[in-house]
UniProtKB/TrEMBL annotation:
This is Histidinol-phosphate aminotransferase. NCBIfam families: hisC (TIGR01141). Signal peptide: none annotated. Pathway: Amino-acid biosynthesis; L-histidine biosynthesis; L-histidine from 5-phospho-alpha-D-ribose 1-diphosphate: step 7/9. The modification N6-(pyridoxal phosphate)lysine is found at residue 222. Its cofactor is pyridoxal 5'-phosphate. It catalyses: L-histidinol phosphate + 2-oxoglutarate = 3-(imidazol-4-yl)-2-oxopropyl phosphate + L-glutamate. It comes from Alkanindiges illinoisensis. Pfam families: Aminotran_1_2 (PF00155). Homodimer. The keyword Transferase applies. Keywords: Amino-acid biosynthesis, Aminotransferase, Histidine biosynthesis, Pyridoxal phosphate, Transferase. One of its GO terms (molecular function) is pyridoxal phosphate binding.
């Protein structure tokens, strides 16, 4: 959307320099198959809706509980998360989606004299926040096979952030490599963004008690199918969580609304449903990889709820455009090194069969 420089004169100079962030599109098309923003194809645990409806009916009039402010500490949610993660409540921070949690992390730890480091191919919000907070950045190139080379991550008194599994590649970095990064950087906070860790990856939360410079960030948006409820969390030793709480309290002392707290608690209490839908996503991923390989696609090894793939004979942008004509949306990044790749979210078997049938016609 174009806003004239005359109207932009009312903006702060800092905001005038910001490029608008372009999230994955959310078009309204009939019979749309949306495989572009890594949402879950499965509904959340049925207990989530039950818990939310209960909150709405708590007082005599429907919705009357919404008159009241929520618990500023979201204690019930922190307790449910801590129990599921086998952490103490003091090691848990919650916010409105991990995008907000990441903003607090940048503010709390990365505004330093020294640069922050992240991979040159990584989650697109890191550059956005870096620009917003005026940070110096070093983008460390991934290896040719898209793996992260830990030797490039040495940064005293700065910060380090990477997604694991990485976005948009889906490639997973084993925990022993993460330990090397933590040991190389005792005076920098190292943030592991685990938005996609529940689909066969291994979480770095097991390292929290060992490293006082580690922050692990997770979300309920993917593996718990709650992208619409906006619940993100960070795990770390209490001295780092305390810094995040200070930042949060200076912006908004109510991180979560009543419905999100109730729905989130119900989700974390339903471990069986969570495990079952994560396993189904992994099974569907393996099936999609096999189907695409059959069509001549090359697929990077993924531990996420998406795959990153290219076809040696067909341009990714053209494939994406042709899919769009038939109401199937996948993600294409017009960026160096990855412009011939497509990122495709794992769907239900029926959705994936529809995709594969179309790809068979295109390729
Ligand atoms: N981190 C990564 C790597 C992501 O891909 C996403 C989702 N776009 C997020 C964080 C943010 O997720 P949410 O704000 O929905 O928790």
């Amino acid at each position: 959307e174009h806003i004239s420089s005359h109207l932009q004169r009312l903006w702060s100079p800092e905001v005038r320099t910001l490029e608008p962030y372009v999230p994955g599109e959310q078009p309204k098309i009939d019979n749309l198959l949306k495989l572009n923003t890594n949402e879950s194809p499965f509904p959340p645990s049925p207990k989530v809706a039950e818990a939310i409806i209960k909150v709405l009916n708590e007082h005599a009039e429907p919705g009357n509980s919404l008159r009241l402010y929520p618990d500023p500490d979201a204690s019930a949610l922190k307790q449910a998360i801590a129990a599921q993660q086998q952490l103490s409540v003091e090691q848990v921070f919650v916010g409105n989606g991990s995008d907000e949690v990441l903003a607090h992390i940048f503010k709390a730890f990365f505004i330093q004299d020294k640069p922050i480091l992240y991979p040159d191919i990584s989650y697109s919000f890191y550059p956005v926040y870096s620009q917003f907070f005026n940070l110096k950045v070093i983008q460390v190139p991934l290896a040719d096979d898209f793996s992260l080379d830990v030797t490039g991550y040495q940064q005293p008194n700065g910060g380090i952030i990477f997604a694991n599994p990485n976005a948009p590649t889906g490639v997973f970095l084993p925990l022993d490599k993460i330990e090397v990064i933590l040991q190389q950087n005792p005076d920098s906070v190292v943030v592991v963004d685990e938005a996609y860790v529940d689909f066969g990856g291994q979480s770095a939360t097991s390292l929290i008690s060992k490293y006082d410079n580690l922050v692990v960030c997770q979300t309920t948006s993917k593996s718990r199918a709650l992208a619409g409820l906006r619940i993100g969390m960070a795990f770390a030793q209490p001295h780092l969580i305390a810094a995040l709480e200070r930042v949060k309290n200076s912006f908004n002392s109510y991180p979560m609304d009543r419905l999100a707290i109730a729905g989130g608690v119900a989700s974390f209490e339903d471990q069986a449903y969570f495990e079952q839908t994560c396993q189904q996503t992994i099974d569907n991923r393996e099936q999609l990889v096999a189907q695409l390989t059959e069509l001549g696609f090359e697929v990077l090894p993924s531990k996420a709820n998406f795959i990153f793939t290219q076809h040696p004979q067909y341009a990714a942008m053209e494939i994406a455009a042709k899919l769009r004509e038939v109401g199937i949306i996948v993600r294409h990044f017009n960026k160096p090194k990855i412009h011939n790749f497509l990122r495709i979210t794992i769907g239900t078997t029926a959705q994936q069969n529809r995709l594969v049938a179309r790809l068979g016609e295109i390729c």
